[in-house]
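With this grant's support, we have settled on a layout for protein records. A representative record follows, to show the layout.
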Amino acid sequence: MTPGLILALIFLVLVIVTIIMGVRIVPQGYKFVVQRLGKYHKTLNPGLNVIIPYMDTVAYKVPTKDLVLDIPSQEVITRDNAVIVANAVAYINIVTPEKAVYGVENYILAIQNLVQTSLRAIIGEMDLDDALSSRDLIKAKLKEAISDDIADWGIMVKTVEIQDIAPSETMQKAMEEQAAAERQRRATVTRAEGEKSAAILQAEGRLEASRRDAEAKIVLAEANKKAIQLIVEAARDNPLPLMFVLGERYVESIKALAESQNAKVVAIPADLPAALRGILGSKIG
């Protein structure tokens, strides 16, 4: 092979390499940031693009699709000094690629740190109960807090979702112990109220029984009084009714005495009417 042919082949290879270096095909969903001699020159859109070989270089390939950034879990202290664990997911879109690559060292890491910092600040102004039940409010405040900052980097926040927010393990254990103590307290109160109600009902029952016994005694006394009056009135002319009543009571007393375990000998008068007349004396004479 002659030297002239070799030079021609070298020149042809250089031409082909130069053409290849000057042509850039950008896929859909990306934009390429081009630097000329180390300085930003332009941004290539999807499709076929031509740059100047050896002077222009593709420095960054930036995705223009929506990006999903996972925000790591972190412990956050609420306003009432409760510790909760929270993490989030941020959906962003890079609107101006050159601002994203030149405005901040690492836009992904920067956004993650910004979301974590803002999340701590927002939850730190809320009580535990509000923080656990106000995801939509936290989401809105978080998006508002970071939108202006990342707009300077040519990035737009689509939305920020609170993926998980829950008390820490230590806080959960304390809450469980508190709940158990509250249930025990309620059980004790319920039991005490039940015992109180039972005691009141028992007292009211005894009171009602005593009242009924007293009324019964009064009624019995009135009946005895009336019976005695009738017997006395009847005995003025004829002592037999009075003797009959006394004899009946006498027999009942003898019967009760005979049934007693302490009774050894029971003496019954042979002439019961005479005994009754002896008890009454002159009143029936």
Q: What stands out?
A: The mean pLDDT is 81. DSSP finds eight helices and eight strands in the chain. The beta strands are 23-26, 30-36, 39-44, 47-50, 56-63, 67-77, 83-94, 155-167. Helices lie at 3-22, 97-103, 107-124, 128-133, 135-151, 169-235, 240-259, 272-280.
